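We examine the record.

___
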Amino acid sequence: MQTDCSAGQLDFLGFLGRRVEAAFDGGRQTSDAGLLLLREVAERTGLLRRFADCFTDYRRPDLIEHTVSELVSQRVLAQVQGYEDLNDHDTLRDDPLLALASGKRDLVGAERVRQRDRGHALAGKSTLNRWERTPAEATAASRYHKIVYDGAAISRVFVDHFLEAHATPPTRIVLDLDATDDPLHGQQEGRFFHGYYRQYCYLPLYVFCGEFLLWAELRRSDIDASAGSVEALEALVGRIRTRWPDVEIWIRADSGFAREAIMKWCEDQGVEYVLGLARNRRLVRAIGRELAQVRKEAQRTGEKARCFKDLRYRTKKSWSRSRRVVAKAEQLGDKSNPRFVVTSLAASAYPAPELYERLYCARGDMENRIKEQQLGMFADRTSTATMRGNQLRLWIASLAYTLAQALRRIGLRGTSLATAQVSTIRVRLLKLSGLVRISVRRIRIALASAFPLQEDFAQALRNLTEIPSPVA
């Protein structure tokens, strides 16, 4: 039977003789009250402000309604909350809490110039799209695209955040390098079919130090996995040593980075390296006795067996010198599994088993960080037409990850989410409903009383207050 209902009303199954109905008419409410915590992180660390400083705005100042800082904050904060699609912002622009976190003075859009924009505090998808797609050569004379980014300055934001996160310089840091596939589903600039990944994709280069993301470079996939690594290391190591001249720096990566140019650069610069090395017949022959030994041991015990051997090795053409190689001879059931690592570290200080199992294998944690970046923060949402625009999207995702990682590292210390993935933090902590009340003297958010992680939320705020308040 047809029920009498207003437009937009949602009718559900009844309950004990009562109608169950809903409508999106709650007014100034938010489903993302976790923005309060993200705002604390952003304001106290200055992350979003620094990112915004990397742009040159050629728009007429008297016509600007959304500053670069506000656009950056809106875009990054929404991405942390799970809104990677620009279309979402045509609705999100009415969220008063997102407006507050983005630094808008007019939280409800009452002072917008055009009548059709009033009531919408934030930018819509079209404004954000123009910002993301501004070409490098744009000037004040350009018609629509007038906000140009400085890529070198943006890259420095991440390493500077890493440096400032340490009260005292560490004795040693390990930089993990890796490349991964970023699938493409359109006709984006630079698309290439990669035979290994069996799809059209980009091949971004990442550098992490622990949980800190230091480098995110979008690249075509018709290149060697290590392409651009020396340039990235020059930029990172140079900036790190300027601040920490005595820090010991190691790099770690898989066999795709065991290249003469990288190893020689490290040797010249006093940087240690631990790199996977692709097997070949010469290397396998060199550990033939050890492979036979572990095969017999595995047959005898029915368990996997392994042993290690130190080698001096040099390629016939590509390497300029012989280098230390650690070989692992391993038998897994009926399968032989030889593995090799090339390193600059001395055998006297780092014996083969320790170097392989404790140092090299630890790079596996970087895979978790890349998953957080790619899947949790939508770094693979590179669907604009140009490489430049997609590089900006990669940096937006990288900043979103860095913001969430700072919340986890500082705010969630000692809570049940201290080691949670960023996607878990979003679902469990940040997706929280709240009723926003705005008056002349106060902005009050009434949070859901039935929220299970109330104490963790409060503890996160207490932890964040340890960061000095920004200078007004």
User: Anything to note?
Assistant: The first strand starts at residue 10 and ends at 15. The chain has a mean pLDDT of 94.
